[in-house]
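help with this.
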Amino acid sequence: MKRTNLLLGVLLVGQLTFFGLVYAFCGSPSGTQAARQLLLAGVKREAVQKITIADNDGKKVILAPRGDKWVLPERADHPADTKKVDRVLGQLLGLESVYLVSRSPAHHNEFEVAAHKFRRRVTLEGKEGLQKQIFVGKSGSSGFTNVRLASGPEVYAVEDLKYWELGTRVADWAQKKVVTRTASGWLAWTSPRAASTTCWNAPPWPVGSWPASPSRSPRVTSWPARPCSST
């Protein structure tokens, strides 16, 4: 009888040790609903002055606010699609953990949220020393996306965010058509691929009637052109 009790006691200790290790390294079981937490709690939208989105291949895009609009500072402040930037920034600031996937750094590569293996790395910088970095990984079979804050080892499952929504090409964020009239009466056209804006002497007809790429039109290229900085 004593031997049986001893064996049962050893078995119980073994089970408790096993489950303790599982919890320590993996957190709560996958799929277990827990109290949600805001991953970027305390970060105010108006404090964000720079967004950098990078992929694991070294491609990146930088977005910055100019007044109530967003621009691409590495493309001569070419206007960005402000509605899209605002939407994605709102998604990032509103990220809530659905459940804890893992507490172990050993799982970062598997979920593609490691410092050197990730789907996307998003860095928010801004006022009062704001600097937050979040790694966005692959989605699991549940449809949730794995993410990790650079400040900790915990991997969380989140909804309403996919890595492919965070493009790393200028074309993913640039405003498609940018034709404006300057104060001195010149027609200005900016390309997201250009290093500067080019101006043409404005025609008498409405700006909206001109093609998105004036430089491809023989009629437009016949006009005198000059850098907009001299207007």
Summary: The chain is about 20% helix and 30% strand. The chain has two domains: 45-173, 179-230. The mean pLDDT is 77.
